[in-house]
Design goal:
Elements lengths: L1 E7 L3 H10 L6 E4 L17 E4 L1 H9 L12 E3 L1 E5 L6 E5 H4 L5 E5 H14 L4 E4 L4 E6 L4 E5 L4 E9 L6 H5 L4 E17 L6 E7 L2 E8 L3 E9 H9 L2 H11 L7 E17 L3 E2 L2 E3 L5 E2 L7 H17 L10 H29 L4 H15 L2 H12 L1
Parallel strand pairs: 1-2, 1-11, 2-8, 5-13, 11-18
Antiparallel strand pairs: 3-7, 4-7, 5-6, 9-10, 10-11, 12-15, 12-16, 13-14, 14-15, 16-19, 17-18
Helix pairs in contact: 1-4, 1-8, 8-9
Amino acid sequence: MKFDVVIIGGGMVGVSLALALKDSDLKTALVESCLPTSPPDDQSWDSRIYAISPGSVSFLENLNVWPTIDRNRVTPVYEIAVFGDDSSARLDFSAYDAGMTELAFIVENRQLQAASWSALKNQKTKVKVFCPMQCTSIEWNESHANIRLTNGKVLQAKLIVGANGLNSWVREQAEIEVSQHSYQQSGVVANFSTEQSHQNIARQWFRRDGVLALLPLPNKLVSMVWSANEEQANTLLTLPEADLCQQVDEASYHVLGKLQLITRPAAFPLNFVHVKNLIKPRLALIGDAAHCIHPLAGQGVNLGLRDAHELATTIIERGSQSDCGNYPLLRRYERARKEDILAMELTTDSLQKLFNNENPTLARLRNLGLEITNQLPLIKKYLMQHALS
């Protein structure tokens, strides 16, 4: 079975690339091991949420994904308030100052996944989907690559795209070098109802014991992401509901009044992964297979969607080059993405290390840095422009 592009991994980033290629002249396939589950027909909330930038929303709108998401489950963010680990350090961003109507949109992972797969199903035969299906081996050749599936079929591809997450099997098969380390932290997530209105403000506290974020959901609901050391994360996961609400309330300086837990906490390990090369002959990496950053900036999924958008643009606009897996062509994609990825890796990794340090001199400097940045509109504008893309 011959294809131009075979995408391995059916998460939101992989599916978005498939959708971006569906109207091109490229014969495309997608391989995914697990069938996506539909959101439950109830009032529950997914504990895994994303802050989607306006740039990513535009991309998803063009793919007919964003318009199909239930608007009652999407929350615009008008302001972002970032606090240091003392009472005075603060950094504020507003949509008004940025000349935007919103800084981001908060949406559940399951809503995005369901909308993405619904759009994929609606495109009928333009993208061939193999799901549930796993790959067992890849054979690399000069003119193509062969992917063997668990059902015995072999897919021939001019280009393989690895979109299969942090521990990418595709990346491993290509023997691409990575540098990585664990943050020795877990991201603890849960949802709460609040006594006071969040006013569509996303709030984040850089604490000496981690980073706490409360992100607005519809009405008086918020989603918590607490990047905590492993001992504290285990404590948060096992606390009785009332004690957990009290601890989050105290850590957020009672800004939203009394909290009530509506979604039990869950946790996921936090890691940093830098990939030496985004491409090899017949291969390109996107999403978490290409990079993994600390969630303190809420930019991981947006980084992946920018990968998908750039790769689709590169191979669609390849001109007279008929081979979409041509190495010099793929180099265009890698050059276009390197600066954005490196900047986000450096920013998030440096901030995590800076605030996860008990040195009193560093504590004074980092809080002073927040205060100074808050008084410099040009720097704030630059930071916002990067986050909005």
